[in-house]
Q: What sequence folds into this?
C-alpha cells in the first residue's frame, strides 16, 4: 500500500505547472539570479534564468548567467551539465563571448575533475580546449579586455600545479628513520 501512496504523491507533484514571469520583471529577476550566484546557490540562479528565457528566449545576460550557473555546479561526473553549458554559450551572439565562455566551461569542467583527483592525462584535453578557446577570444577581445589572458594564465597555473603534484606522487618516498643505512668504512 505504501508504494501506491508514493506513486500518488508523485502524481500530485506533476500536477503543478511552472508560472511565467512578466516581461517587466526580467531585469529584477536577473538581478536576483546574479545575487543567488554570489551566494553560491547556482541552482536557484539557474531556475530564475530559465524563467527569464521562457519569456525572452535570446536574452544575452540570461544566457550568460544560465551558462555560468550550470558551470558553478560542475563536478567530476557532470557531462550533461557541461554539454548544456556549451549549448547555452553557443547561443551568445557576440563571437568574443562565445569563445570566452566556451573556454570558461572547459576550464571549469577541467578544474572540477582535477579537484576530484582524476588523472591529469584524462583532464589535459579539457584544458587544451579551454586554452584554444581563450586564444580565439584573445584575438576577438575588445580593447583593454584581458579576461581571456587572465583565464589562460589560470589554466596554465593549474596545469603546472597538477603536473608538479603528479610528478611528486610518482617519486619514491624516503623514510630516513628506516630507509637510511649508513655505509660502513
A:
Amino acid at each position: 500500500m505504501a508504494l501506491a501512496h508514493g506513486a500518488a504523491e508523485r502524481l500530485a507533484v506533476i500536477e503543478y505547472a511552472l508560472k511565467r514571469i512578466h516581461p517587466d520583471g526580467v531585469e529584477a529577476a536577473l538581478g536576483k539570479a546574479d545575487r543567488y550566484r554570489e551566494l553560491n546557490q547556482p541552482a536557484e540562479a539557474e531556475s530564475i534564468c530559465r524563467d527569464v528565457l521562457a519569456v525572452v528566449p535570446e536574452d544575452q545576460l540570461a544566457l550568460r548567467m544560465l551558462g555560468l550557473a550550470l558551470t558553478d555546479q560542475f563536478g567530476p561526473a557532470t557531462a550533461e551539465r557541461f554539454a548544456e553549458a556549451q549549448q547555452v554559450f553557443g547561443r551568445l551572439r557576440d563571437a568574443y563571448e562565445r569563445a570566452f565562455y566556451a573556454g570558461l566551461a572547459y576550464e571549469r569542467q577541467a578544474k572540477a575533475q582535477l579537484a576530484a583527483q582524476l588523472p591529469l592525462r584524462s583532464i589535459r584535453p579539457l584544458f587544451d580546449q579551454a586554452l584554444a578557446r581563450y586564444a580565439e577570444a584573445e584575438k576577438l577581445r575588445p580593447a583593454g579586455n584581458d579576461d581571456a589572458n587572465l583565464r589562460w594564465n589560470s589554466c596554465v597555473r593549474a596545469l603546472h600545479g597538477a603536473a608538479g603534484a603528479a610528478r611528486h606522487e610518482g617519486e619514491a618516498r624516503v623514510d630516513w628513520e628506516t630507509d637510511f643505512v649508513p655505509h660502513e668504512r
The chain has a mean pLDDT of 88.
